[in-house]
Specification:
The chain is an alpha+beta fold and 46 residues long. It contains one helix and two strands; from the N terminus they run E-E-H.
Amino acid sequence: MSKTTNSFNKLAGEVVYKPKKIKFEVNTFEDALLLIDDIKLMCSEI
């Protein structure tokens, strides 16, 4: 089930932004870009 086309197989981590903690797990580079956009939106709403 391994994908060699992606630059990375899985990126998982945690972003802590007061007072919210965002847990994420992405499987593709596109997912990572979408996640970054979501975090930017959340940070701008606070």
